[in-house]
Fold this protein.
Amino acid sequence: MELITPGLGLIFWMTLVFLALLFLLKKFAWLPILKMLKDREDAITDALSSADKAKEEMKQMQFSNEQLLAEAKNDRDSILNEARKIKEKIIEEARVKASEEAGNIMASALENIRNEKMAALTELKNEVGDLSLDIATKILQRELSDPKKQEEFALQLLKEIKLN
Amino acid sequence: MRRHFQSFARFSYRTVILISLFFFFHGITSFASARENVNLVPASDSASAKESKEKKAEVFNAGDMIMEHVVDNHEWHILEIGHFKLMIPLPVILYYDGKLYSFCSSRFHNEERSYNGFSLPEEGPGKGKIVRTAAVPGGPKVYDFSITKTVLAIFISAFIMLFVFISVARAYKRNLNKAPKGMQSMLEPLIIFVRDDIAKSSIGEKKYEKYMPYLLTIFFFIFLNNILGIIPIFPGGANVTGNIAVTMVMAVFTFILTMVNGNKHYWVDIVNTPGVPWWLKLPIPLMPIVEIIGVITKPFVLMVRLFANMAAGHIIALGFVSLIFIFGAMNVVLGYGVSVGAVAFMIFMNLLELLVAFIQAYVFTLLSALYFGLATIEPEHH
């Protein structure tokens, strides 16, 4: 029964070759291969997780970008609104000021005019008084004997004349 | 006509390869021996006694033929057409009576089948075993350390493995952290399979790394030799994993590794199995004996399973071939008729063997890993 009797020489060679194979392959093949496989798996896992992280960050960034944009838009709108308001206010103020100024000017002009008129009238009155006195004097010098009576009469007349 | 020529051309091409292989490995000695064999063909006018002896040898014996192919041999038979034998004679290394003898096995190619005081009988009970020609009972024994067919096949597969896996390791270094290429991508799934589905699942995440080189080596050694065993021509065709000495060595390695790495919990479970009534242990250590038998049975079963599966595969394939010749001896036409079915069955068996080649490598590796896992399991705290 050679089939089921292990041969001594074969056991010897098999042990020798198998041990040599085991150690050589362990040193030059299995350990490097297993290490690289593990490294590669780790690298792939890392790459995938960092890609996920990057994606998440991108999303976050996009979100914040949108937020910023919206904020900027809001800011711009509010600034524009404010500007418009300010513009209107300025215009309003300017208008008010202008009309006020105009009113003032008008008022002062009217005052001036009145003053001038009054002055002119006063002057005119004085002048007219003087003139009429002169005239009356000249007229009455001859007609009235009593100058005193005459002056009284002229004053009375003058008072009666109201120049308003 | 043209087709005929093509097949002839292909045939001659194959012959050239065979012959060159044969020169490459063993030089001219085998050719000389083949010539010798050719010269041994008796002429038509030779003695009738010799002729009848030749006839007797011609009778086909399926059992002998199958055994011859399945067991180890001192020569590697490649081809046999009539009396022309193409074979590789292998070196014989003997240790006898404190001395080493080494010579080529083709030295036995003579009438007496003996050389230098040793003989290699071709038939009889001591067939295929080298013995001292004039052996005295109780005298020194012959220890045969020859490079036999199986040993050469082991060498060849070891070289193939070294070449393949070292180049694969280099490929890993070359394209670091990149997708595998070529041979690397063919072997990577198997390596990962051994790592994830065999080692990690049976030994556990923490300890599996230590056993990986051993598991990978046995897995690929068994797988490669199973596959090479299916290929009928040199350098395949040797029945390496179907040889009990080979499976025994691997089973013993698994056994030694289990013993060396067994932790306290493992040994306590064997010597003092928990959860078993005391009377099974104390006066007669029944339970420890059963456990120790179990420990020894495990590698024994490993050895027998692989050996029996692979040897059986070879025997079945050869059995189908034998069928053709058995029926052919009865009637030539019957032989041809049977050959159709036999070849069909052989193809089927070879395909089955391809599956078995993988399954047996897987089972041996998985069971080894399971034994390591059992030996290193951490005790559960209840």
About this structure: The radius of gyration of chain A is 62 Å.
